[in-house]
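Before a colleague's protein record goes any further, I have to sign it off. Thanks in advance; the entry in question is below:
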Amino acid sequence: MNHDPTTDRASTRLRQTRLLGAVGLTAGLALTATACSTTSAPQADVATATTAPHGYVAGATESQEPQLGLLAVAATGETALHDLLTGETTDLDRVDAAEHAATDGRFLVTSDGDRTTVVDGGSWTVDHGDHTHYYAAEPRVVGTLEGGGPVQVHSSETMTTIAWPERGEAVVLDRAALGQGELDETARLDATVLLPLGEHLVAAEGDTVHVLDADGEPTEPTGSTGSTGAGRPCTDPAGGIVTRAGAVVGCADGAVVADDAGETSFVALPDDAERPTDFAARAGRPTVAGLAGDTGFWLLDVRERAWQHVATERPLRAVVAVDDQDEHVVGVDDTGRVVVVTASTGAVATTDPVVDGDTAPLLQLDAQRAYVADPTSAVVHEIDFADGARVARTIELPFAPAAFAEVGR
């Protein structure tokens, strides 16, 4: 393994944080939505019981830094979690063969042709806007849902949605129960895209995007630009993502954006543009990226409701927007190189080929690093995208991953 001294120092500090909190790990993983205050320790409540401290989550340990790990599933179902802070790898229960996968940054959802499996990576981040909480708990296989095929997963603090676009079906799961290891289905819809947005659901049903309540029922129109009652037209919806500035559903000629108030707007692509069919970005950021066929990629600034096309030297197989100060975008091209575009300057940096260019790459990233895995090998390449696409280290997994997620971000 190649060592990055900066990474090593950070890892030592974060490892100490985790070890100090490890005694608090239990099997209960409830993600309770607690109101934030200045309380930092339990206060005695004479009439009832002890009041939970600020940010308390039952069954989890809170840390000062993200507790990052790589959760991987083999094509044959072996499952393991590699701790990026300690370098340790833990085997989890075996799951069904992973033909398709998606992640929300905590849960990895895999599927074959018949069933869908939910695996809890055991670490996650809760972003409250002005401050952030980092949690760790016990990783485990939660359970399975009937039905398979390509899958999507998205979460808010209270809801997790799983959609199967090819089947046109989607479910809503109670996120607190999911954190406790239970699959509690609260709604089921005929939708190709289903996104949780606060206490709303944004659903693509047929060629229309609707804003629904948490039970999947229609809401009333909420403003002059909103069309939540009748829905917003969206031809051939495909791809969805939740951002800090709203939820996005991709359409044949643009995207529908829904804001926290339940109002929707349409952001049109230029005429004859090749549309993106999926979007990816660092968790919570307002700018997202999607492939533009063989020509490069699109950036959609959700806050500004604006598209930007960025051409690349070679076609990309995957792309994710970092949306940091320098506007980094990380992709993998058809030769297997990692390509880092600095959108603010137009600068481009690349690695040598690190994965098989003929195989769909597995790409994840956080605020500091990108992780690229190749289903044909048992290694993950950690890329410092802010340092000229430098390969910071190579991480060995116990098997070649067919599904892959960075958890804790």
Observations:
- Residues 1-49, 222-228 have pLDDT under 50 and may be disordered.
